[in-house]
Amino acid sequence: MNSVFKSIVGFLPVGLCTILVTGAILWLTLAPHPLPESDMPVIPGMDKVVHGCMFGGLYFILAFDALLWRIGKKRTIRRLVTGRMAVVFALACVAFGGGIELAQGTMGLGRGCDFWDFVADAAGVAFAVWLTPAVLKQLSFSV
User: Among residues 104, 127, 126, 125, which one has the least CA distance to residue 55?
Assistant: First the structure.
């Protein structure tokens, strides 16, 4: 791992990234107006891309934090993300996305439950499951 990245990673408490990303997702999905109004035209379907990025990013951060934990415990790292970890993290992220959609439907704050947002969440997680090992390997974590 390169020295700058290693020093940043060594400074972070394990789990901090997951907590920050989870908090950001909760704010962006449950707050009535999380972002200021804008005159920028809305691209149709862009919210689905955002949902995929949020939940795919959550999966990646979970895998990243788990790897940091394994490195901190001086565990032997044969694979960056084990199959069991991938399944548990993926199911947790998809369930979290579904829970948020259900919460949006019951809050009554102008947010609505959208099945297609849930599908976008799951698609983002599936893409992250496929992409995460390659990205972590590029970050120079030893295998």
Answer: 125
The values of phi and psi at residue 77, to 5°, are: -110, 100
* 109, amino acid identity: L
* Entry pTM: 0.84
* Residues 44, 31: Cα–Cα separation, whole Å: 21
Query: Coil, strand or helix: which one is 109?
Result: coil
pLDDT at residue number 35: 76
The confidence band for 143, taking pLDDT boundaries of 50, 70 and 90, is very low
> What is the domain partition of the chain in residue ranges?
3-29+46-138
For residue 120, what are the CA distances in angstroms to 36, 47, 108?
23, 9, 22
Q: What H or E segment, with its residue span, contains residue 19?
A: helix 16-30
